[in-house]
Amino acid sequence: MYALYGKEYSDAQTHYVFDKETHLFGCNVGWIPKLLRGLLSSSASEPLKWNISVGSALEQAGFPARTLVINLKPNGKKPNLSLYEVMAVWGWSSHEWTPIMFHLRGLFIDDDPTEFESTDFYRSDRDVEDPIFSMMYLEGSVRNGKLFGPWTPPRPGSTNSVLLWPDCLKYFWDEAAKLMQ
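RESULT FIELD:
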């Protein structure tokens, strides 16, 4: 599950308030394509390296003091609270596909959902795990400043791993290294 949350920082802690369920993917409804559109020049075409700073991009899109949150295990067999804030997304659009890397902050990681309210909560800086990275790929790319393709993950199959050629892997590695210094 993906959600838009209100976010307010003060006194070394952040207050998160659930706003609504939303989509990260999909050319017409997903936040990643929507925010990326606002950053593209009219000449942007694959192969294209790009980066979205989620907080800044949401503010520019008219959603100040908001963030995107992933509930990693909303329907697990064992009750589990695993909420991750999406801080940034990097992409490499090429050959009609876009591998992406998320910079996540672990707000709750495998916590007991009966101990916390997941729609209105505070997290102090010391309780958050950061940085955490996740990778996947989307069907879709960029040509002449416009997105094309569905911008959705492929359906489950025997090869859903992310294939990264050396130049693409180096791009993601270099961006992750900047956060780990």
